[in-house]
Write a structure and sequence with these properties.
By secondary structure, this protein is α+β, with helices and mostly antiparallel strands. The chain is built from 16 helices and eleven strands.
Length: 411
Amino acid sequence: MSITTAGPWSGPAREGPVPDADPAALERELTEAVLAGATRTDVLRALRAATGRPARLLSAQGVPLAATDSGAGLPATTAHAVLDGAAPPVVDTLDGLRATALPVRAGTTVAGVLLTLGPGDPCVRALAGAAVTALLIDAVRAGDEPAEAVPVPPRHTAADVVAALRSGRTGPAERAAAADLGIDLQHPPAAAVLYYGGTRLRAWSTALNWLEHPVQQEARTAWTVVPGEAALARLRTRLRLMTGDESADHVVAASGSHPESADDLVRSFTEAERLLGLARGRHVPLLTFGGCGVVQMLLPLPRARLRTYAEAHLGPILHRPELMATLRAWLAERGSRQTVSEQLHLHRNSVGYRVRQIKNLLGTDPLLPAASAELHLALAALDLLESDGGGLRDDGDAMPAGRGTAGPRDR
């Protein structure tokens, strides 16, 4: 199935969805189409083609905003019940038809109701759910929120709750506010931090406001909590799509370890922030505590310990950027002179000359198992120092040559 951005949908409606229709594939197709310029009407036409049923997008008051037919909407009370999760899965429209109803919402803001006409069908409901993200992206890319959006005021804002968790305030009031947002502090989630490096800052802020996750934002950086690494990956992908940037690296995400108690969330946020700096320095779009390797052992250490370890194992070549680059490549490629020469654009003989210098200055062969482990750890310590913005300097010393810093954090 394909989606077009012009011309009315045509063709007879079928009884039921396309055989073997895949909601995940449909969601990807609709998302890509919206990013390429398709409108919400195009999304509804594609949904009709997939389900064989007319589709309607209603406002929060139940008034049709777009549709594949000329039908009516819902009573305002029914639309509100759908948005509050209090309505049955199948409702009756004002023109007397049965329809599957889904809320089009994100976080504490609701944007409308999506209807697919006909009797209840789990497959149709799943396909309709695949259109929700595309409809949200269309609203974000349009740069405005629906005029009839209905805010759902919590006792505390989501930003207040996240700020409290970051600072270690987990008293009864904070726990109650967290519970209102679906955060169970008896089994706390992991902390996560996201950074936006693109140019569409307004779209970034809007996208954050439309998330189901509680978020605290300061300019390009946002803090939240996630139940697991897969959830963070999905969250990052969704933000990247909603901001509409072509580059896959404009949204960078990192998460800390899973805390054993609510009081440990402070540590998890600190880990996530340090890993975010490391991810930006390494140009990695996603870095989690579980996937950061030996860095896990380094995160609890103070900067002085990291500095001492890096200097002890890399000191003789720290101020030789060409040797630092060669060492990194040599270790990564496990001594493949050909591959290293191609990566660094050097002659094979030049690679061999540099490796001999490294061996002489460090007093060891970097590929020996014990030496390799120590050097990998020392390089990771150096990267972590530099991602924090200070490198090996104490109070204004020059940054050592080598990998280069991740730059100051934008808060």
